[in-house]
Amino acid sequence: MDVYFQNPNPFSGVDNIPPPLSSDFINVSDYLVLDDDVVANPNSNWSLSSETPESSDKAGSINDINVINQGFSDEIETSINNNSNNNMNMQVHAFHISIYFLADIQIYVVILIYILWTLLFDRKRKSRGMNETTVEVTPRVTFRTRSQFEIMDDGYKWRKYGKKFVKNNSNPRNYYKCSCEGCGVKKRVERDREDTRYVLTSYDGVHNHESPCTLSYYAPPTMSLVYSNEWQLQQQASANSSSSNYSTNTN
DNA sequence: CGGTTTTGACCCGCGC
DNA sequence: GCGCGGGTCAAAACCG
Question: Model's pTM, two decimal places?
Answer without folding.
Answer: 0.50
